[in-house]
Every structure is written in structure tokens, then in C-alpha cells.
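Re: the 90-residue chain
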Amino acid sequence: MPEARKKKTKEEKQKRGDFIRLAGMASTVGINMVMSTCVGFALGYWVLDKYLGTAPWFTILMTALGIFAGFKYLFKIAKNAEERDENGDT
């Protein structure tokens, strides 16, 4: 009986560790989406449009590129998670 209890405890710890790891990855994706959009906007607005006098074109372009970069990272993380599931890795 004590062996089964130890095994169950190890399995529970493994599940909890997996949950914490996945929650960390999910928060990283959210932070990355916001930051890439903000960096794109800042580059377009303050760096390019202010100095070149082309407002609002580079602001729109760089913001769109920032959003694209955020979604690219999201799909990269999703693909890696899918590959882990297929391989049975934790």
C-alpha cells in the first residue's frame, strides 16, 4: 500500500508540474503578442514616421508586422506543443 501511495504522489507531482509549465508557456504567448505589437507601433510611429514625415503609413505597416510576429510566435509554440503530444514527451 505505501508503494502505491508514493507512485500516486509522483504522478500527481508530474501532472502539477506539467500544468505549471503549460501555464507559463500560455502567459509567455500573451506577453509576446502585446510586446511585439507595441514594439512595431513604436518603431513605426516614433522612429520612422516622425523622422521621415510619412505619418501614418509606417505606423500602420509596422503595427501590422508586429501583430504578424506575435501570431507567428503563437503558431510556433502551438506546433511545438503538438509535436510533444505526438511524441509522448512531457
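DSSP finds two helices and no strands in the chain.
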